[in-house]
Amino acid sequence: MAWRNILKNKASSIINIGGLAVGMAVAMLIGLWIWDELSFDKYHQNYDHIAQVMQSQTFNGDVRTGKAIPVPLGDELRKTYGSNFKYIVLSSWSWTHILTVGDKKISSGGSFMEPDAPKLFSLDIVKGTGAALADPSSILLSQSLAKSLFGDADPLNKTVKFDNVKNFTVAGIYADPPQNTMLQQRKIAFIAPWDYYALNVVSKQSLTNWGDNSFQLYVQIADNANMAVVSAKIKNAKLNRVSKDDQKFKHLLFLHPMSKWHLYGEFKNGFNTGGKIEYVWLFGIIGIFVLLLACINFMNLSTARSEKRAREVGIRKAVGSLRAQLIGQFLCESLLVAVFSFAISIVLVQLALPVFNSVADKNMSILWGSQVFWLIGISFCIFTGLIAGSYPAFYLSSFKPVAVLKGTFKASRFAAMPRRILVVLQFSVSVVLIIGTIVVFRQIQFAKNRPVGYSRDGLVNIDLATDDLHKQFNAVREDMIRSGAAIEVAESSSRATGIDNNTSGLIWKGKDPGMTDDFAFIGITFEYGKTMGWQFTDGRDFSSRFLTDSSGMVLNEAAVKYMGLKNPVGQIIRYGDQDHVVLGVIKNMVMESPYEPVKQAVFLISKNMGGYLDIRINPKMSTHEALGKIEAICKTYSPSVPFAYKFVDDEYDKKFGDEERVGTLATFFAALAIFISCLGLFGMASFMAEQRTKEIGVRKVLGATVFGLWQLMSKDFVILVGISLLIAIPVADYFMTGWLQHYNYHTEMSWWIFAATGAGAIIITLLTVSYQSIKAALANPVKSLKTE
Fold first, then answer.
1. Using CB atoms within 10 A of its CB, is residue 670 exposed (0-12), middle (13-18) or buried (19+)?
2. How far apart are CA 596 and CA 280, in angstroms?
3. Digit-coded pLDDT (tens) for 362-388
């Protein structure tokens, strides 16, 4: 009977099943995304006991929190607090290195770590042994990197040449960790021995210098230890070791648990302020509301249709049906619709996952083998079916058959009120989603249009993995310019889109003796300003024609303001044991987050960089041809290093990645929310037109026009959407204004956003209901009135 009733009312069944299936599919996609986020790093067996040692430092009252720590801290924790830890592992940062096997050369990211790293991270060693890191001539490779280097051959005990300098023996192969792990996120495809790094790469001074914060430290606390207690114990471990002058920076250490690395990675004034967990909450709420919209449709159409079935109930009861049987009948129909919708939603999710993974930068799949997944899905089907079927089941089954069959039964004048309330709720949610999506994209565009203080067009950045190009920089530069591929070439210690080094201890006239300063430090060659396209507000650029310029200094506007200098050009600033003359002041270069204030920066001529090659491509030559010539020159001076480059404008655009993903996904979900809402409106309009067929016939006979009837049928829905706007606009304004406050550099809420959204919602409503309204208005009144 349930199946026959679904087939009988094809239009409402399609709307019910289709709308609910789309809502379930959206909730399922968001659920998979949230599951992936919440399970980040749970691949590691000792997930709850692993942490990274971080520190908060105070600079002129501003507390900065970071992951960089000094090397001596590792031994200090072992000696003084050793009983609290199971493993302590010093690590370098993950950088790109050149791995060579025969004629095959691969650029790959990796880190140098102490021997206990494989145990701490519980790496799955598939060949060899993880203990090999104790040997400074051994290396561990991930399976994918080993495959790339050695193909199908057994890589164990084979030799890999590292950065054209050192030969390492492959002592172990570990299985590639899942994508949602720190090791994948930081692109650690190999682990090299710390002892080699400490002896051959790190300066001897850094190994004992408590002020050199250039390394990372991971720990696994003892099995019976408490993370918060251990964190409190080591709080002053560094402060007790630094000089009295450095103690004013208030170096406070703490353990940042692995469980918080991914979702709680943001700090402000020394306190954890959240991070990506905000997106988890955001999409979780969106998923619930989109599913709620689909359920509202289901309940609305189910209750609306149920009033037409009063006579059926009367006849059934007259021939002996029990109330329990009628309740079972209506609930069975609702459950059947919910089950069909769930089955279709799984198909939709399977089809949508490739695109969704691409947009969300994930590698998710349906959890076919998860009992939790099936339990939630089946429970939801039962819950939705029972809720949607409860009104017709318990309300209609209570009718007296005599009243129904005599025609004296009429639905209460308030019977439509719950449906109207649900429609208002439905469109309120949709409008909030639309406004939120507009604001997100407007914020992204606002930040993208921010002046960056230099020209990104045609600017190419090459990571100097070895010293080959650095040692022959002048010859490389001359060849690139002579070839016509570049108009200028420079070297720098930091990329144009990031600051790799910070410094303190600068002394200038008028500086407060108690001030703890903090500057971004960028070492450059003389040609850097011309290559970047610096915009000067005062003074001049470095020039190789003046020997004294090698001890000059260029400041950005933020530095001048930070130092309180009124006439900076010509002033003497002491850095280290050398005096530097301020040659010029440039407009602030946006090198870090485009949403945050630019940090105070100093630019100095430096001979020992080995960081990055910055190339301004000749605009008169095609990019393809210019890159070909640049590659040939790089191969001439560094034949063993694969040619790899990055466009600065592409790297800058990546800074908007998280926000753009949020915006794209929000647009997708907002569009589906509108689609589901319109499905509901279409179904309700269809039902109302059918319910008022005779009324429309009478009105036409009495002279009503098609336009007048369209107006009559559409007015109720426009009023409901108008009420939705009155509710949704203040709510959206409150939440999106709060969201914008997370950014120091942000757009403002504008009236046109609300006006455009309101107008769009009303137009969509009219387009949705007009088909049914006009169809009813054009119907022949004779057909609707001939039975009266």
1. buried
2. 23
3. 888 998 888 888 898 888 888 877 876
